[in-house]
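Entry type: protein chain
Record version: 2
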Amino acid sequence: MHQMGSDENLKIEKKRIGALLKQYFQKLNMPFMRGVAPIRRTLRYLQKGDIVLKDSVHIVSINYNTGAENHVGLREFVFWHLSQVQYKNPSVQIVTFKNMTPTPFIRCYLDNYEEIIMDVDSQSKEDIYDRFKRVLAKPQAQLQLEAKSSEDNPANFGATCSKHCICEVPGQVPCPSVVPLPKTMRGKYVFNPDLLNE
């Protein structure tokens, strides 16, 4: 009897917490926090995905059935991880085919007209994720190297860099709009030396 009372209290507490969360999200005006596992649609969840596909991968097609037991792992992989893969790889076309094949598989089309076919029959979501990452994703060392090379180089200048113009670098000639250039450095006077005498 004591166990039954604690189960009822737990159900009441869950309902209370659910109602509080619903009120909180309605106040924030977040309509996307509805449906099954709404966490999948948050930006933080999408950014946590760590599968960045290799540059040679152009198209990924995922084939599975919605009702078969041997398709559960791939179905869960699509449910939990496909949105992250799409977010991290916006230039890769990802297509899902449902209820068209007796066995689940992932087919990838590469830029050299080769195909990679992964048979994922009766595999778990974690196994598929690990295999997909191992075969098609860039290694962590390569990602770190790319991130390091894309950091702002102090030698660069322009609209997207830390310095807009080279005249902001110490030791360079100041900007002609602020300090006029000497006449000997201007093409107008170099090619017409007669103008220097004026």
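Comment: The radius of gyration is 29 Å.
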